[in-house]
Amino acid sequence: AQSVTQPDIHITVSEGASLELRCNYSYGATPYLFWYVQSPGQGLQLLLKYFSGDTLVQGIKGFEAEFKRSQSSFNLRKPSVHWSDAAEYFCAVGAGATNKLIFGTGTLLAVQP
Amino acid sequence: NAGVTQTPKFQVLKTGQSMTLQCAQDMNHEYMSWYRQDPGMGLRLIHYSVGAGITDQGEVPNGYNVSRSTTEDFPLRLLSAAPSQTSVYFCASSSGTGSYNEQFFGPGTRLTVL
Lengths: 113, 114
Fold this sequence. Notes:
The complex is a heterodimer.
Chain A: E1 3-5, E2 10-14, E3 19-21, E4 24-26, E5 32-38, E6 44-50, E7 56-58, E8 64-68, E9 73-78, E10 87-94, E11 101-103, E12 107-112
Parallel strand pairs in A: 2-12
Antiparallel strand pairs in A: 1-4, 3-9, 5-6, 5-10, 7-8, 8-9, 10-11, 10-12
Chain B: E1 4-7, E2 10-13, E3 19-25, E4 31-38, E5 42-51, E6 54-57, E7 64-66, E8 76-78, E9 87-94, E10 104-105, E11 109-113
Parallel strand pairs in B: 2-11
Antiparallel strand pairs in B: 1-3, 3-8, 4-5, 4-9, 5-6, 7-8, 9-10, 9-11
């Protein structure tokens, strides 16, 4: 069965520091992978997605993610975090021919001044 | 272009009451879905629809009904609310079918069942 694991429930980084959020997936075929961000009291916004091709994908707000098939990972990175990046981040895998998404449990990011 | 809209934003119910959460999209998307978000559990799929007149169950469908009479609207009905249905509910839509399609999410409805 498909699943997504985000091992870090809560992460705190200093403003200007680099960030890496971890995501591991379980899926039998080539996965469609997504990162969404949820600001407090808001809906989810797509940061980036991977379908095929280049394993390093660029997204909005300066985020990028790298697909590593051998590690079943799709980690999200940002070289320099801004206070406005404080939010909850969800990794998701597209499940099959329908549009179903399977989400991880999320990582809550706090940014210290 | 409003995207995906949800009403109400907040709702408090008593156990046993019924209500309908509204969801509408103006992007002519075929696919619509409902998720619930609970602390520490991420988002879980309740029901989805691949087009008008077609609905199917997701991961956690019990206690919820849906129908899709138009492309634009996809209401979620709670027939007899239970405290276990206290959650934040998100509606989403996407164009076409296929897991590669970006899903657009509404702002959510925060439901409390007492």
